[in-house]
Amino acid sequence: MSFVGRSFVVASLVALCRAGSIRGSSREEGRTISVEEVQAGLQAAMQTVLDGDDDSRMRSARIEERVWQTFQALPKNDVGRLTPRGVRYLVHNYFMKEHGWLIQGLDPHGNQANVSEVHEVSILRDKAPALVESLLEARRSNHGLALTDIVTMIAALERLIFDESLALLRAAYAFNDVSMFGEVEQSRVHDVLTSYLLLFQLGSKGNLSDARLHRALKARVSRRDDWPTVVDFQKDAVMNFNYAKKDTSNPFVEPRYTFEDTLDIVEELAHGYGKWQNMECQQMKADLMDLDADGDGRIPLGKFYGRVDTTKYQFTESMRYLQEVGALDETGTEKKVRIANYLQGPSNCIASSTYYSVCCLSECEGVLNDLEVKIQAPTAEPMQLLRLVGNISSSTVDAPRQLPLAMSERLHKIAAQNGGEVPLHGRLFSEWLHFAFPNECPYPHMVEEAKTLTPSHWMDKKVALEPERRYALASAALEESESTTVADIAWASEEVLHVQEPQLIKSNIFRTMMQVAVLLTVMRAAASNWKTLRSMGADSMKKDYQLPL
Ligand SMILES: *[C@@H]1O[C@H](CO)[C@@H](O)[C@H](O)[C@H]1NC(C)=O
Ligand SMILES: *[C@@H]1O[C@H](CO)[C@@H](O)[C@H](O)[C@H]1NC(C)=O
Ligand SMILES: *[C@@H]1O[C@H](CO)[C@@H](O)[C@H](O)[C@H]1NC(C)=O
Questions:
Q1: How far is the CA of 356 from the centre of ligand 2 (A)?
Q2: Is 92 exposed, middle or buried (0-12, 13-18, 19+ CB in 10 A)?
Q3: Is 387 in the pocket of ligand 3 (CB under 6 A)?
């Protein structure tokens, strides 16, 4: 792909807006927009973002392969297209499961009545206003999006986010005194790429102009035990790049790299980063599960805080934080921490840039996607679901298994509450999935404000408790923990159908929605990637943050 093509992106979008090719038509008073016009506008706007990129068709094909089955399973409008909430769900789901990216503007919304939509994504608003405009047109004309629109839009978003890497890579070149013109040897590329990864990790807290600061920081982190995994991550990417070029390069000459080559490698890094950093999430999850004697996905608060300083992970988030993100279960006599909600909480997201954060990949969305693939419809009968879910395994659940009777009864009640079938994308089914996969699926807690689920909300707030406070809480908590079973746990019965447009929902349910702010499934996983930067991230949430020098 051509490097020139990328930098043209923003310029050509601006040109598009100026030419008014998209804005013009609908602004005229009293004029109805035809579906064809909206369609043409959308495609044009999205194509502009992708133009000049030969890979984009291939990438689109890959994206389509990943989303078409979910698309089938979502409710459509009367012309067979996806409505704004369905689009939001699909886009959000794609980025969470593929990259662990929590995109600004598509944050978990707890399915409150007021749900943000794809046109509110901040990177689109800043960098692709024409696309936003045409999404709004599609919405106004009740047009909905076809699968191809959605695929192109996801590709466009991915492209815009990759383009963000460019500034970081430039800074990484400058910090290592490497010229962006001409070719450099491999060892210098490694220096540049480790700098890039460090900057990427720091996200919006990084400084792209202070070279001295960067070098000091890099020297500091390079003494950490876990630094080699970072170095290996970029070395593997370079090796893959060399391998892909092996047919066209001379094996007897040491390879040299242009800026464009490095940019290609960086794109690979960005693609693989979500899955790579997720290894750390898995370790943290295993650590948490060791503390869970009952195996119900909940840990007594005393145990959560009671980790000694020598263990790899210490959990320091305050009770208020746990409460606000829905990770604290206060239904029993003893307060407990919900593993899945905790992992997906914003304190575990890293690399928060202005436009997105990298969080743990959501295993629960994988489970739901499995069901969507098999069901291919927005709702299913309880018996079918029991059979299918009993056959789905996760990293902590082995299939096949027989679900307890209480679970089967519960599912039938959900169906009864929704006219005979269970809506797959509703709050009640999320709750049910939580009990079926307690370590993977977060409890759809009712949050007061959806913004407490976003990393940016906690950015300048104090999240961590001082060690003394933690020890005090740990020893105050009762040692013996009560045993709970599914049947004992109180179920909340509010349903919220979060991929349906409000006007399509029966009015009584809509009223409930207005009254109750409910967190849905979509609470995101998260975990910091490597310990070094996790601790830097945690520090950075404190008000008295100083760069660790
Ligand atoms: C709903 O969201 C819009 C835009 O984000 C905002 O202007 C409006 O105040 C919100 N309404 C409620 C009831 O929160
Ligand atoms: C980066 O560092 C420079 C020099 O220390 C400072 O002037 C600048 O304000 C910093 N920028 C940011 C965004 O922190
Ligand atoms: C359960 O999974 C197995 C293996 O993946 C498959 O052969 C079987 O048909 C599945 N059963 C149902 C009911 O889906």
A1: 22
A2: buried
A3: yes
Beta pairing, strands 328-329 & 256-257: unpaired
Indicate whether residue 401 lines ligand 3 (CB < 6 A).
no
Atom of ligand 3 nearest to the CA of 388: 14
Output the pLDDT for position 271. 84
The residues near 123 (Cβ < 8 Å, ≥ 6 apart) are 103, 104, 105, 157, 160, 161, 164, 354, 355, 356
3-state SS, one letter per residue, for 283-330: HHHHHHHHCCCCCCCEEEHHHHHCCCCCCCCCCCECHHHHHHCCCEEC
Amino acid (1-letter code) at residue 384: Q
Alpha-carbon dihedral sign for residues 28, 34, 35, 37:
negative
Count other C-beta atoms under 10 Å from residue 57's C-beta.
Answer: 11
Q: Domain boundaries in the chain?
A: 3-163, 166-275, 294-350+372-500, 502-540
> Which secondary-structure segment (H or E) carries 195?
helix 186-202
Q: How far is CA 251 from the centre of its chain?
A: 41
Closest CA to 293 of 349, 334, 247, 348: 334
Q: Closest ligand to 371 CA? A: 3
The first and second tokens of residue 344, run together, are 């997906």
For 397-439, how does the pLDDT look when each residue is reduced to its tens digit (9 = 90+)? 998 999 999 999 999 999 999 999 999 998 899 999 999 999 9
The predicted-structure confidence for 99-141, as pLDDT tens digits, reads as follows 888 888 887 766 566 777 888 888 888 877 778 888 888 777 7
